[in-house]
Design brief:
Elements (H helix, E strand, L loop, with lengths): L1 H20 L7 E4 L10 E5 L4 E6 L2 E9 L4 E13 L1 E5 L20 E9 L2 E6 L2 E6 L19 E5 L2 E9 L6 E4 L6 E2 L7
Antiparallel strand pairs: 1-5, 2-5, 2-13, 3-4, 5-11, 6-7, 6-10, 7-8, 8-9, 11-12
Amino acid sequence: MRYSGFILLAAFFAASSAARAQGLPALPHIVPHVCPLECCRLGDWTTSFSPLVIYAEPGVKDRIVDTIPQRTAFDAESSVVVIRQYGVAVVDKPIDPTLGLNDIPLPQPGDTVYLARYEGEDFFLAYLHGKETEVPAFWGRGGPGMGRPKGTPSYGRVLRDQIEEWWVLVRRVGATPGWANMTGVGSVHGMDACGE
């Protein structure tokens, strides 16, 4: 048992060292002023069928400062994304240039790409050769991003998905302001201008 714990600890430090060597920000990494919804709308939100737990800091669940009850209005002021784990993707062959953005070079065969967060429209904020960039989902069907139809060409593969959380700074009258982890929350109205 001690031996397997040592191996896990060694693997964690090796992964951390590899991330630092690639110029990646330390984890967890907070990206400010980001909303992962395509039609994100901050402002007046309302809880529906479930209460919403509010924490003192984004990404830290050890201190609850409030719980917003069901069917209660509150103000969503700003949001951040907390990156818990970088994804890892490898390029196996030249990527079709029509997948990329005109002004951003595409990764080349043999490159390892560290995926930080999903940007939408099948693009990712990523790190390549120690620099922040945007990359398209070059790995065909499956993997993170949008669903892709059968027959979508693959130019590489994802070895590990990224893990990210969406946190929102909230306020309501008479309560302590704080942060709600909105990752996977479906019991709030007002946040998606496209879907409501």
